[in-house]
Amino acid sequence: QVQLVESGGGLVQAGGSLRLSCVASGRRYHENYMGWYRQAPGKQRELVAKITSGGTTTYADAVKGRFTVSRDNAKNTVYLQMTNLKPEDTAVYYCNTEVTYSLGPREFWGQGTQVTVSS
Question: Please, which residues bridge with residue 19 across strands?
Fold first, then answer.
């Protein structure tokens, strides 16, 4: 099992910045990636950004140039630096990871952290 604990959400004005953190624990010998998804009210959960164990990053078009995903393997932590925030970034942000075990890959999710951007 893998546990993910997010922190760093909050209320910020448009144009501001926030940094989210997610600490992972548990059996993760063959982790494929860690990343961030978000879900706004009435909308489906969507990928924001992810980073592989080798450091390759992927971003949603809506956040390219404003958000940066990074990781500190020594701390088992993934970060999401969010700048120039917009009201449409308001959502619950979830940490996500995929780990491959002998029976195949499994996904794990954090409990989510609220990000609210006021106009």
Answer: 81
